[in-house]
Amino acid sequence: MSDSCQQPRRRIWAARRLTLLGSVAVIGSVLALSGPLGYGRLIDQAWAAGPVQAQQGPTGFADLVAKVRPAVISVRVSVDEADETAAAPGPNGEPAMPGSPFEKFFRQYGDEGAQGEMPRHRLMTGVGSGFFISADGYAVTNNHVVDHARSVQVTTDDGKTYTAKVIGTDPKTDVALIKVEGNSDFAYVNLDSRTPRVGDWVVAVGNPYGLGGTVTAGIVSAEGRELSSNPYDNYIQIDAPINKGNSGGPTFDTNGNVIGINTAIYSPSGGSVGIGFDIPAPTVKMIVAQLKDKGVVTRGWLGVQVQPVTAGIAESLGMKTAAGALVDEAKPDTPAAKAGIQPGDIITAVDGDAVKNSRALASQIAAMAPGSEAKLDILRKGEAKTITVTLANMPNQPEKQARVDDHDNAPTRGVPHLGLSVAPADDVAGAGSNGLVVTSVDPDGPAAEHGVQSGDVILDVGGKSVGNAADLRNALSAARSAGKRDVLMRLRSADNTRFVAVPVG
Description:
Blueprint: E1 4-5, E2 18-20, H1 45-48, H2 62-68, E3 72-79, H3 81-86, E4 124-132, E5 138-142, H4 143-146, E6 149-155, E7 161-170, E8 175-180, E9 201-206, E10 214-225, E11 235-238, E12 250-252, E13 258-266, E14 276-280, H5 281-294, E15 300-301, E16 304-308, H6 311-316, E17 325-330, H7 335-339, E18 346-350, E19 353-354, H8 358-366, E20 373-380, E21 383-390, E22 392-393, E23 413-415, E24 420-424, E25 436-441, H9 446-449, E26 457-461, E27 464-465, H10 469-481, E28 486-492, E29 497-503
């Protein structure tokens, strides 16, 4: 499991409108790539390493395209019958993609009668894009393009087709590294180590709808886009048109550097509407370096569940700014628990690097090697501390907690100010022996407004354990008497623990 972070329930992008660009159809993904600096035989020094400067509006991209397009490849895969069963179609005829950052992706491309039904006894094919990162045939594409592939073939810009093998994949970021054997003179490009600026010109090259070598242009529209609860989401948004089959292809800046990997689009129709998403090149480089070295990606793991520090939480804890990651829970027998990290701790820095929010913490820890030591600056009840933790290797699967059932017939006590009713946990079957079970919530009350739901278990309020309604009222009154506008309430829900700042006045 990853060090999980709780996100606000509101989502910017409706899942049904998020489309991967992957093999054959839509439904993007996250791509990785890394390689030697420079363009090999096709990029001269002036193009490969120009100084950082404000970009001027180009008069055209023909020179740039002529230099970089030979390194871009079309990828075609064949998936055998056994894996076809594993990737059975979902409600919309789209096969599921285990381990992907997204829910579904299409593998069927240009196949007659593929609307909603997928024959069991037939070889499936899929297409995507990619690009060489070294002259000896290493190339990058998406994990979902080559997932369960029986064979992989790539076609270069000059029309030659080669067989490739999968070196390694990383489903968490949807990255795959492949290699073509028997040739050491491929044109290749490099990934930029810098993040582009919003407004910079970009050029995307790929294989949309099987039309290899297609070039489109646009600008960087935004940075740091988060499309799901995946803590590794950090997309560059571009408006260069990308479509089905572009997945795994590169996006270039005007110096010919790869700034990102085409991965997903936001679309109400399945086609491009000028909102596309790329995995940043620095992220891709880190992933591919591990795949090339050992075929797998290992990540540091702390063993905590964390959430963002909201303005309300910051105020309730006397913090000047809302930053850092608030620890909901340190899982038993994990590096965090062994190091003494406690619920309510706020992790503010890792090895001296500030933690912006809970997602940033997950990324910072994951980027470290298992077995390495991390120095965590934390804030505990207003006091600054430093804790050294030896990180473990991130497990593959998330742990689940038992669901807490909501029993409407349980004895309850009302808390009018918050708009909820509670009952001692030991009076409600399946709720455990600690805390108060929320048995009902006024949909118009403050509790509902802050995300409290029936079935949640209130573990403590303002750092004090609560076992009955009187404990809860006393904790709220104490916070109000101390001049606080909000008090921190720790809740356990179906499969996680979180903090909520609720008003006390």
